[in-house]
């Protein structure tokens, strides 16, 4: 099985004993049978985010359906905010116990539990008879989404082969647009149904990704890091051997990964008390907490909730009031975003996280929201129809820049910044802040658009500038190294001595040198700090 072995290239800009994960494989992933099997199972986990995307696009689409509007009394302003905002309340409630649950029962069972909750919520939502019932269903769905959104990024990040960690963890949130696209075009199709089933039928489809999760997540491998934490070291080793090394016992990556996982967990046990205060106890954890918390807010504050939940209101504000036209624009926008999001997931390791985030924000502001603000103001003050059509173009351009990077950052960049000992707490905190931000903006957006109109976009322009400054001065680069080695960026020399073992690296080099099919190099690879 020598041809399945990983190639160990030691030495990056982060240290002489770090591993360049981009050099581990000599062929594309689909040429390795064990990686095809691993990513086949992980595709089930990636699908959970499609539920969230379907939900967001659904609430946009429902606003174009006359039967939904008539059934619930044509909600606007604060009342419309209730329809969208209550989803976040369920997520906020789940925060109080999810951090414990995901460590107690594991990542897989947490995802499955969330899928069951979503199915229940979707059923109630689809047959709602009044605002209270519909809003309650939205809260239940939000709680289920929080279960999945907590466990899925952890499982993908901790189970993926080191070479593909960034792409897969970023791809998780990218599939938001798959669900959003499905909901947008299905909603367009149901415009022709002349009854309440025009909205009830599309609502029922929201449970489809959750049913897939319930049926197939049982067969997905569990996180090796969680297994080691629970004392199931041999089971963790078997998973890495099978899915990262193709069953090849001589593969140097097996010993390397097991060493880094066990030494990292041991280091964290010695330096962590297990309480929530650990998030602020050390400089490294304070830095992690800042990155996660600021990113959670900024991803929602830079306009995505406005476009994701209130596109119909935005379009109506520039004279686009035909329901079919609104649905077509919504469907085209979600497909457009999905294409750019997939491209971003593909190149995230090539260009690096910081460069992608900064260029995304720059383009989003200068080529998206700023000209959008100007054109919307011109349309409002002068009634120039051309300015209104220009707004649509700038919505597409700004959304493209956002989708390339920021859509995937929450499941890619922030999760790899978290050390294992605080990962569940930070993931739950992230979900809390994301959902609290979504809830807040879902109440704020329709009210602001109704009362101050285009001036609200100026606020978003300022927030994007603030986001750029925050990223430039406080977000570190994490590309090209293993998940455990990211800890050395935040925790410094102590983590380097505990995690990066020169003897292990030399043994891996010697181990591989005995196998003629594996090329071993030791060289310095430049890595952006």
Automatic annotation (TrEMBL):
Please give the start and end residues of each transmembrane region.
38-58, 78-102, 109-128, 134-155, 175-193, 199-220, 290-315, 327-348, 387-405, 456-475
Q: Which GO terms describe its molecular function?
A: carbohydrate:proton symporter activity
Mention any Pfam family matching this sequence: Sugar_tr
Q: Which PROSITE patterns match?
A: MFS (PS50850), SUGAR_TRANSPORT_1 (PS00216)
Note whether Transmembrane occurs among the keywords: yes
Gene3D superfamilies this protein is in? Answer: MFS general substrate transporter like domains
One Gene Ontology cellular component term attached to this UniProt record is: membrane
Q: Where is the Major facilitator superfamily (MFS) profile domain?
A: 41-479
* InterPro entries documented for this protein: MFS_dom (IPR020846), MFS_sugar_transport-like (IPR005828), MFS_Sugar_Transporters (IPR050360), MFS_trans_sf (IPR036259), Sugar_transporter_CS (IPR005829)
Keywords (alphabetical) are: Membrane, Transmembrane, Transmembrane helix, Transport
Report how it sits in the membrane.
Answer: Multi-pass membrane protein
Coarse class of the primary localization is membrane
The listed locations are: Membrane
Highest taxon in the source lineage: Eukaryota
Question: Family, per the entry?
Answer: Belongs to the major facilitator superfamily. Sugar transporter (TC 2.A.1.1) family.
Q: What is this protein called?
A: Major facilitator superfamily (MFS) profile domain-containing protein
Write the lineage as a comma-separated list.
Eukaryota, Fungi, Dikarya, Ascomycota, Pezizomycotina
